[in-house]
Amino acid sequence: MRTLKDQRREKAAERRSGMSAAARERAAEDLAEWMHTCPFRLEYDVTVAAYVPVGDEPGSTAMLDALIDRGVTVLLPVVPAGKPAPLDWARYTGPASLAPGRWGLLEPTHDRLGVSAIRAASVVLIPALSVDKTGVRLGRGAGYYDRTLVGLSAELVAVVYDEELVDSLPAGDHDVAVGWALTPAAGFSN
Fold first, then answer.
1. Exposed/middle/buried for 131, CB within 10 Å: 0-12, 13-18, 19+?
2. Which of 118, 129, 131, 136 is in the most buried spot, having the most CB atoms within 10 Å?
3. Which residues of the chain have pLDDT under 50?
4. Is 115 in contact with 151 (CB distance < 8 Å)?
């Protein structure tokens, strides 16, 4: 039986698949621009954990490159083999530092830093299908990020398209709430 979360995931996937490539590209450009005016201190001694968008996820490597331009260290996830578990991390230094990993996701080719490397991050940009105004994030359902984010003191930011910031979403006991949403039109909101 499909849960309410499953229904929401399906609806979000349908909505995203209906977006034109041009609309996704504009959204990615806007998200990259927000890296220059974000509400967090992003300087040479700051680490940001982020992600490389896959398929129709919001963002692009331009968002990551904008962070590097600000002088921050950018960490990207490396999906571990086996069952869902906390994500491993490696440093991103530009598009040339990426190669296909598990499930064809682009992952950094630099040395793996371990699952605890994310603890160095001041800000974590997290992919989501939707996020509500209380911080409940709807992911793809495997729980990699929920397992990874437990106990972090970083600013947690769900990156979504504008219409994916909603009033409420169903939450489970294992869900880790975020404090911020980042959308192409409105930027950072909490």
1. buried
2. 131
3. none
4. no
By three-state DSSP, how is residue 40 classified? coil
User: What's the whole-model pTM score?
Assistant: 0.93
What is the DSSP pairing of strand 123-127 with strand 106-108?
unpaired
Could you give the CA distance from residue 163 to residue 169 in angstroms, rounded to a whole number? 13
Looking at residue 1, its pLDDT comes to 65
CA distance readout (Å), 6 to 1, 18, 93, 177: 9, 19, 35, 18
The pLDDT tens digits of the residues spanning 82-92 come to: 898 999 999 99
Question: Would you list the DSSP string of 109-160?
Answer: -SPB--GGGGGG-SEEEEE-SEEETTS-EE--SS-HHHHHHTT--SEEEEE-
